[in-house]
Amino acid sequence: MSTPVITKPAADAVVPVRPTLGQRLTSFMPVIALVVLLAALTIADPGFLTLNSLTAAVRTSAPLVVLAAGATLVVLCGGIDLSIAALCSLATVFFALWLPDLGGLTTVAVIAATAAIGALQGLAHVLLRIPSFIVTLGGMSIFSAIALVISDAGPIRVVDRDVTNWLTLYVGGVVPMSFVVALVVVAVISLVLRLTPLESWIRATGYSESAARLAGTPVDVVKVAAFTVSGACAGLAALMLVSRNFSGSPSMADNLLLPAVAAIVVGGTAITGGHGSLWRSLAGALVVTLLRVGLPIVGVPSAYEQILYGAIIVAAVALTLDRSKVLIIK
Amino acid sequence: MTTNLQAQPEARVPAPVHALEVRGLVKSYPGVKALDGVDLVVRQHEVLGLAGENGAGKSTLLKALVGLVRPDGGEIWVRGEKVRLRSIVDAADHGIGMVFQEQSLVPNLTAAENIVLGSEGPGVRRGVYRWNTMRRLAQEQLDKIGSHIDPLARTDTLSFADRQMVEIAKVLRIEERTSHPPVIILDEPTSVLESKEIETLFTQVRRLREFASVVFVSHRLDEVLDVCDRVAVLRGGRSVGEVPAADAAPAELHRMMIGSTGGDDHYHGASAAVRSDERSDEPRTPRLVVRGLSGKTFRDVDLDVHAGEIVGIVGVHGSGREDVCRALFGAEPTTAGEVVLDGERLDLSGTRAACAAGVGYVPAERKTEGMVGPMSVADNMTLTKQHSRCTGPLVRPRKQATLVDRWIERLSIRTPHRGTAIQRLSGGNQQKVVLARWLVAGDVRLLLLDHPTRGLDVGARSEVYRLMRELAGSGVATVLLADSLEEAIGMSDRIIVMSDGRATTEVAAPAGGKPTPLDLVKEMV
């Protein structure tokens, strides 16, 4: 079929609209926030900015970065994954239990299992039309309970450390391997999104699901895929925790859920979907970790630490969220 | 206009004080000037009709009158007093109330609750409903319009006509707020009513005149002339005149509404393909064959569309034509029927299958369903036909840029850049991007257009018309749900009339042999 041609050319010239300085700045805001925070901590305690403390900070941040990266995909689709921390805890138990039998294959098995569990939640969300908030809230509770049952409600020691030892190495003697892995995860997922139609599908789904559906976007497939990757990331984060703690425990990652959500929003990803990126969540995770690690180091009393933490998170979101890209603020 | 703001208010309050007066009201939306200096006078105790085509600015004007839209310029005077209406409550305080086109009652509450909702007054004491007082308050309102509806009936058990009475009763509550006769606005009150119910409504409207002024808006000109004392006509956001209803004919009103606009040049043509086919008498197999299609809101719909043909479907609100359109795109479940496109059975299970089969759909709700606002023009354009910008699984930015720029030029889409967020474009340019989405791969065979010109100005509309013709000329089969009867008649080669979910009549509309709007209206009701 021949393509139709409209003959009349555009009559009026259009003045190009350049992004304002403010708009340009908002896209760098997460990084700016990170630098400002680092500077503030250094000013508060000039001894803070040492190679040692930075290394410790990024090593601590690695599981959080991976968890937040996976969950960011779900958030970009307009959903939320509240089960990541519980699933991560469950995965540490899986790892400790399966290691004696599976040996070197345990890594693959755990990640495959959590990916499958993530996919299952995605399918429940898509097929049964249950809001992702509810599905993953239920998932959170179920995974915690399963972890308690199969672990007899206590930590399981990991005796064979060879399998996870590689994660505790340092690249070039300085950069923790777990952080490098986290960076690779963020980079690979970002690249896949950028180089394939997935990015526009995910954004369209997150911004306006009905418009995406009516444009023939495979909305359901995209959502299930996001939950699957989020699950896989929970499995990977579990490996990092096990490599550090030499055990699996049914509540090991439970305190990571809210920091992960905070990392996503502090990065400037819109909780309503569509707008954001994994790089932003990386910066957000670093901000959150620096706050957690840095505030006690510079001598903030622990009672005030929570207040400051909360206030900085809210302020950071106020800075990093580009409101022109977000249709509704819920 | 803002320049007139200081034009000696004292001097402009002459003898007969009007219930409501609008002077030079202006309101612009990006790309569209909805109101361009509207003047309007509503006298005490009169029924004023407001007529105008879609996009003439009626809804914007009404919204400005009840404080839902802040005008950019101009003045609103209520009983000789200049007012600034900031909200619907503000408007109610000045005695202006509106019965909305989309019914605004809460369906699972009783009629009484709905009537007092938001202005409970003595109906609530210490935060608790006093049912007896409420029923009495509601009954007073219903008595005003002589309605016999049970105030304690749940609203969703009432007929559309009764719900309308409840709405009117509700609006009359604003009498409590002012000591003056109120102004009641009825926006398309008849669109969901049957003819018998319409008669009852008209009786009500005439009764309302005893103690209020009424602004009556309807698409149906005969109705307007029947019930109103005077009719004001809007066109393109301006007041173009008014006539006393007693000695005006629908045709005269209609001429005032349409004027002579460029958009009409594209009416009354026939698609190239149809013209050339008229010479050969061979029977052709239609490109789209629909047999016995049934769903929740439509039954046994048969429809044929030939390649290069534009078939309009007309029908009143609730005729089910929108759902038929969506069903053909796999976006609305069907219970029975078969759809064949170019000899192959069309999979109606989802939108993806339809897209793959070469079906394109332009939804009526452009902003929420047609486009993804914050995404770029380029990404919106290639959202469906991803393969058009990919090599294998990989996106090729340069391939996308070339393709998108070519279509921006072909359709003269006015955008600063292909990377600009589509929500920053004007409505017409947005719509062209949405249309281009189906064209970029050159594989579209059937286009379903649901109100493709809704909210567009005259110039943008005529560009969409031209594009539709060119597409038909290249062999695309088109189903059109037009914005107005005139548009359906002008653009279609054939018109299907739908009523109560069934395709009842087919009317030929070849160039030179177009039916009149009245011919169609007879079949629609």
From TrEMBL, chain A:
Q: Keyword set for this entry?
A: Cell membrane, Membrane, Transmembrane, Transmembrane helix
Per UniProt, subcellular location reads as: Cell membrane
Q: Which organism is it from?
A: Promicromonospora umidemergens
Q: What protein name applies here?
A: ABC transporter permease
Q: Mind telling me which residue stretches traverse the membrane in this protein?
A: 28-51, 63-96, 102-120, 132-150, 170-193, 221-244, 256-274, 306-322
Query: Which residues, if any, are the signal sequence?
Result: none
Q: Does the keyword rRNA-binding apply?
A: no
Which lineage do the record's taxonomy fields give for this organism? Bacteria, Bacillati, Actinomycetota, Actinomycetes, Micrococcales
Q: Which domain of life, per UniProt?
A: Bacteria
Look up and give the membrane topology term: Multi-pass membrane protein
In terms of InterPro entries, this protein maps to:
ABC_transp_permease
UniProtKB/TrEMBL annotation, chain B:
**SMART domains on file:** AAA (SM00382)
Residues of the ABC transporter domain:
20-261, 283-525
Residue ranges the record marks as coiled coil: none
Q: Which N-terminal stretch is annotated as signal sequence?
A: none
The protein's UniProt keywords, in alphabetical order, are: ATP-binding, Nucleotide-binding, Repeat, Transport
- GO molecular function per UniProt: ATP binding
Task: Say yes or no: keyword Cytoplasm present.
Answer: no
Instruction: Please report the name of this protein according to its UniProt entry.
Output: Sugar ABC transporter ATP-binding protein
